[in-house]
Amino acid sequence: MDITIRPAKPTDYDPLGDITAQAYLQDGLLDFGENDEYLAELKAVAKRASAAEVLVATENDTLLGGVTFVPSGGPMADIAGPGEAEIRMLAVAHTARGRGTGEALVRACIDRARATDGCVRIILSSQQKMHSAHRIYERLGFTRTPERDWNPIPHLADFTLLTYELTL
Fold first, then answer.
1. How is 103-126 classified by DSSP, letter by letter?
2. Which one-letter DSSP state was computed for residue 35?
3. Whole-prediction pTM value?
4. Closest by alpha carbon to 58, among 121, 101, 3?
5. Number of neighbours of residue 50 by Cβ within 10 angstroms
6. Are 106 and 68 spatial neighbours (Cβ–Cβ below 8 Å)?
7. Are residues 68 and 21 in contact, defined by beta-carbon separation less than 8 angstroms?
8. Lower Cβ count inside 10 Å, N or C end of the chain?
């Protein structure tokens, strides 16, 4: 498979928003399904691209997935502090899974973090059910940081995001 990773273009925004939303919906990661408030955020690729770097994976001009790279605690960061970059909203179309797409996107984020002045670490949050993503992160050297686990939805007491970090 010949995967290309590149910055998202405006023509990618709507299709990537759909891929991201469908990935979360089909994997049962949105507690309220089509009515989940986070669904609008997942679809809002143009908004993310205005505040961070959105990368896409393509093969022969077919969009396979994408990820948001937030350098050094930018406005899209959830938990990154000074000297930390953050990975957000990694999503791969179901038809492109198991072929290295997710790993290629994470590697591209690691490369960008290493090229960011003053960046010493890359971090991310992940839902407990995202087992395939956890395997990618661990294979690439990320380690769990349970002391940073957090809940973005306080009224859902059992919704804790797991955190991972990679020291550069």
1. HHHHHHHHHHHHTSTT--EEEEEE
2. G
3. 0.91
4. 3
5. 11
6. no
7. no
8. N
